[in-house]
Amino acid sequence: MHVHGITLETFYQVMSPRYLPLSFDTSYYTGIKLKQQLYIDQLLERFNFGKLNPVTTPLDLNQKLVKALPDEPAVDTNLYQQLGSLMYLVTCTRPDIAHAVSVLSQFCSHPLEVHHAAVKRVFRYLSVTLNFPG
Where in the chain are the domains? Predict the structure, then answer.
């Protein structure tokens, strides 16, 4: 199958080694769609987010996130790793979570439980939007 002048086999050979785990959907009418369902599934498993309640937005618009006071204890989580993984998704295939990841990145230096819950919400959103961009 040819899509925009290149064969699908050539595209897989060039892209797959660099951008795993990506999946490719091809169509004569829409061209090539890049998806990262496998990567999102791996992240959900890695961070123990296997069974999450679904949400329809990556951020709760009614929740005001504020920086922690110096005397508040930071939550010992793997927030850095979680946000880094989300940033990778943003740059590759998921611009729909860009704003949420940008907002949450401001709280990496001293994360509180509310920040961790907000990051978890992004993963809850991802768990129900695996087929983006549909």
Answer: 1-35, 45-134
